[in-house]
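=== Structural record ===
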Amino acid sequence: MHKFFRTVALGAIAAMAAAPLVVGTSAQASVNTAGTTAASCNAEARGACATVDGITSTGDAEIGSTLTCNYHLATAYHLYGRQSNVQYSWKRSLSGGRFQLWGKGRTLPISADMLGYDYACFVTIPTAINQTREGNSELIGIVQGTFVNSVAPTVAGSYAAGVALPGRALTARTGTWSDPSGRSFSYAWKSGSSVLSTSTRFTPTAAQLGKTVTLYVTAKRSGFVAKSVAAKSVLVKGLLANSAAPAISKGSCNAVTNKCTTITGSLGTWTKGSTLKFVWLLDGKIIAKATSLSYTPAISSMGHSLQLRVTGSKANYVAKVASSKFYVVGVAAQQ
């Protein structure tokens, strides 16, 4: 509705002279947008006009903001007296090109009851003794404010980047938002379309194992359009248990025969259903040809450290690596 008023009023503004302050038609309007300067303000028709700071790039004002009026004079005129002698008034646009006085003063706070209407700033500027020039800004529509999120929400308490664990609490971090005063936040932890929690903290359970959980933070404030922003999702995974570590058997080497006895490895005890892969290491380096749990060291390995390393994996679980104790080849006891 207010856009219709704006169109009708602007047509009347351009066609009619100044009218009474309380209700009537305005002086000729000038076109302005955010940041308009005197150079682009058409002050020639009546010698004066006004521009307004605090509006959006679309020429509207958001609830919660404050507008500031600036006067401009054509080059043929000069301000008579002090700037404090300039009079400012704000008017609401009515149907039929009429205006209603809304307030006086250079600034105008925008409140929720102004939503949907158009307003203009009017200036009366003394240019000589008993002489003034009058002008006004273009119409400014009042719209709901919008939040801007410059730093996205995050989730604290993850096991690792992008990974959450059942039983470990996650905490919402709201991120950075515009208009920090007077707003509130709401939270939603979701898996797909299902809302798991609306608290600032959420603890995944085994029911979410293998599922993605996403935190949504919504900023709210009277006069603003609520805005929801998602944090990076986390995947709920379990931790593999290795209740018995890998181990390797004892062995010996004979310097006369230049042979070492076969050493056997044990993978240890893992979470049921785990897939296990292993490598043998000599002095920390993988022995490429050692592909069996039975390994016979070469005599050249005597005195060097042997170890069995096992990697466990399972769908929806975090992979885990476990290693046996070091064994010095040719020495009977474990080291």
